[in-house]
Amino acid sequence: MNKNLILRQAYLNGKFIKGRKTFNVINPATGETIASVADLGVAECRKAINHAHKAWPAWRDTEVTTRSDKVRKWYDLIIANKQDIARIMTMESGKPLAESLAEVDYGASFVAWFAEEAKRAYGETIPAPKTSQRLVTIRQPVGVVAAITPWNFPLAMITRKVAPALAIGCTVILRPASQTPLTALAVAKLAHEAGFPPGVFNVITGKDSKGMGEELATNDRVRKISFTGSTEVGRSLMAQAATTIKRVSFELGGNAPFIVFDDADINAAVAGAITGKFRNSGQTCVAVNRFFIQDKVFDSFAKKLTSAVKKLKIGNGLDEGVQVGPLINQDGLDKVIVHVKDAIANGAKLLAGGKAKKGLFYQPTVLADVNPSSLIAREETFGPICALFRFQREDEGIAMANDTEFGLASYFYSTDVNRCWRVSEQLEAGMVGINTGLVSNAMAPFGGIKQSGIGREGSKHGLDEYTELKYLCFGG
């Protein structure tokens, strides 16, 4: 493994800097300290903003082909260091190595996509009401961007925000989660090697998430803030950003439903359920949280799902064949324990799992006939728990799926093409997976509705998030 990619310094204005304090990054699978990283605060955050502000005019005016080439070189370096980045990611997040390797490919795909998409930030010509006028629109970079990313996808959540911003001509201050800063610093080193000028891309590490978040949200030199995390924190940042009327895009909490209709291919639905639920031990914003199974196929689906869940291998993500790793921390484990106990107390049947193991591990679990009043029906569990609810009619299943303030992802299985269109249009979510448990890719818009967020990442729409649309009216 390339130890030079395990960095302990933050990255400001083209240099790696030490902090006066440090904090430990812990491997959740073993409890061991991986590294002690620079613990910066609000003062350093403000310096990073000033560096990005100073670097912006020159980067904005750099030819798009030059920006694109540098972003593309960043992609090439990420892919060249795929194995090492994946191991770092597994050590600090706990996810199985196979998932980390897949995330490097997924995260890098956004870099490749936006390196090219920036060349297609088209404007338009508009028919004018007078023959003496010409009406045109152009897109210009929004300015200094603050990106705040979570621990569950330490690479992909960075590239999905940073790549379009850099490619279109914005400068960036990245604040990665304190649980997983090492992946961010590794890709910052690769960005440095790709040749981005000083101040264009900055990474501030530290434990003061509240203080730095407020500085990024309220500093008037920051023109845009992009955040992925909890709805609660998103509300706070949105209120703070309102003080400077800042552009925002938020990808927040989820409570994804997974509906299995009585005409579904049950084997395919079980395979999709495993994919949609157990990736990163259920700790993803689009992870299935509530399974709604039509009564006619409920027992069959529950039996086959339970059999598949019992075969999942739990353990350290670096070990061979592991499919389910640890929870990220004790708070995450405690929430899973509370949700399972509450569901059983409200009448749910335990079909598999249901116990915490040594350390931060929890057995992959299946609960059947869960009461809709249970905590797991209303809150995002973020753990390896399948909660099965029973329904009778199609409209009932849709109503149960929509009965949440969240609206990020929804999934359902059916072989009836008319039902597929009908249900897709009625589900209240920004993304719908039909006969699949995996919906994310760089070419498609990622984002939610209701209290799951605002804005879109990925696709051509993801580039628009980092631009201002300017209208030009030529007279005479």
UniProtKB/TrEMBL annotation:
Residues 20-471 form the Aldehyde dehydrogenase domain. The keyword Iron-sulfur does not apply. It comes from the Bacteria. Keywords: Oxidoreductase. The keyword ATP-binding does not apply. GO terms for molecular function: succinate-semialdehyde dehydrogenase (NAD+) activity. One of its GO terms (biological process) is gamma-aminobutyric acid catabolic process. The active site is at residue 251. Belongs to the aldehyde dehydrogenase family. PANTHER family: SUCCINATE-SEMIALDEHYDE DEHYDROGENASE, MITOCHONDRIAL. This is Glutarate-semialdehyde dehydrogenase DavD. It comes from Parapedobacter pyrenivorans. The lineage of its organism: Bacteria, Pseudomonadati, Bacteroidota, Sphingobacteriia, Sphingobacteriales.
